[in-house]
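4.2 Preliminary Data

To establish feasibility before requesting continued support, the project team ran the inverse folding procedure on a target of 396 residues. The structure was first converted into the token representation described in Section 3, and no sequence information of any kind was made available to the design step. The complete token record follows.
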């Protein structure tokens, strides 16, 4: 691809970002491409399991083809609990472009006066981590992920397109998204800047990029690098990461003729966090296997739930005082060929009018310290808080 054509694609990508409005079914940007869906052609029928949802997606695409849609694609969001309703639809059209420029025109977000309520309160969250550690020490679990939420109420409606632009500016290497969760004129938007690819399928090739093990970054370059190097050497974080990688590899192996799983993770960074990262790649036995089939085989990974899955879910239900909804679910797309891309819905918020709920979680293992896990969730909240101009909003 020559430089002129590459530049044109990036200009087109910026146009898609600037053209986003909240009635769009989805805006989705990665380091590989940008897409903006427009209009509503049909909805995917409700389903009570991920397996049933995959059948419903295939049926919706088949029906759209039969009624004249030239290129049907399913887009949207799937919740943490696969038995709960997903928000998937076939748009009338999808505009595509290359990746967003790494240097977008910078906005300086003005502080939005908000009231903030923690769910649960920070000390209650730390107590929940201590309770989970006791379970882990008793060998009931290898890992569990515990989340917190922040409920924000602003004096006026939140400017969602502006927030999306700010998130894209700060997330050049990750996945920036906005999904319309509402069929009514009043939008309810799932918006975020996730660093984590659950599954990408292109022809016979499949990729996954599990992240587990995190550390907050520092504004001091020397200290920042030391934190990253310490994360690479942390026995606690390496164990947490290994649990996730092994589970993802086990989920993909039955579908693959070859699977490459690196022996050790590498460092990946966002604006606020260091992460341990492993890039898994493979070749499918059957090219007809859809991206959603593969994603469903992995969801939810130990990176957002825990291991073993059933025991982790039970403990999450006991400790977390809210329904996760689409947080730690997946956002993405699947086309008529089965190709697609699904990311894990983290570093995200749900917005309706002047209210916004933020989410952040931390992976708990037997060596976890409650104060450290509380600090990790606070650091993860800053991705969205910074984007809203709430940098000095106080401790969260």
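Position-by-position output of the design step:
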């Amino acid at each position: 691809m020559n430089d002129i054509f590459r530049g044109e694609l990036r200009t087109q990508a910026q146009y898609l970002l600037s053209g986003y409005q909240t009635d769009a079914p989805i805006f989705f940007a990665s380091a590989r491409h940008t897409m903006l869906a427009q209009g509503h052609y049909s909805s995917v029928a409700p389903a009570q399991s991920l397996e049933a949802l995959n059948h419903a997606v295939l049926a919706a695409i088949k029906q759209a083809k039969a009624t004249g849609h030239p290129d049907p694609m399913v887009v949207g969001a799937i919740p943490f609990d696969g038995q709960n309703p997903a928000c998937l639809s076939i748009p009338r059209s999808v505009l595509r472009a290359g990746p967003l420029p790494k240097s977008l025109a910078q906005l300086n977000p003005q502080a939005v006066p908000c009231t903030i309520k923690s769910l649960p309160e920070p000390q209650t969250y730390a107590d929940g981590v201590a309770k989970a550690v006791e379970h882990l020490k008793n060998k009931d679990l290898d890992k569990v992920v515990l989340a917190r939420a922040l409920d924000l109420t602003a004096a006026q409606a939140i400017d969602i397109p502006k927030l999306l632009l700010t998130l894209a500016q700060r997330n050049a290497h990750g996945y920036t998204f906005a999904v319309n969760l509402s069929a009514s004129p009043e939008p309810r938007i799932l918006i975020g800047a996730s660093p984590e690819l659950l599954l990408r399928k292109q022809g016979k090739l499949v990729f996954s990029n599990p992240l587990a093990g995190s550390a907050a970054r520092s504004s001091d370059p020397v200290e920042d690098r030391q934190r990253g190097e310490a994360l690479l050497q942390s026995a606690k974080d390496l164990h947490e990461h290994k649990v996730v990688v092994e589970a993802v590899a086990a989920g993909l192996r039955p579908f693959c003729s070859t699977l490459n799983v690196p022996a050790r993770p590498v460092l990946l960074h966002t604006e606020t966090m260091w992460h341990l990262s492993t890039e898994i790649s493979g070749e499918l036995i059957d090219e007809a296997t859809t991206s959603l089939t593969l994603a469903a085989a992995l969801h939810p990974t130990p990176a957002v739930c825990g291991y073993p899955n059933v025991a982790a879910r039970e403990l999450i239900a006991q400790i977390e005082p809210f329904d996760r909804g689409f947080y730690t679910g997946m956002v993405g797309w699947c086309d008529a060929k089965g190709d697609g891309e699904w990311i894990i819905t983290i570093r995200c918020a749900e917005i309706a009018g002047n209210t916004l709920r933020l989410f952040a979680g931390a992976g708990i293992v037997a060596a976890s310290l409650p104060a450290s896990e509380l600090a990790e969730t606070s650091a993860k909240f800053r991705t969205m808080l910074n984007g809203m101009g709430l940098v000095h909003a106080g401790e969260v």
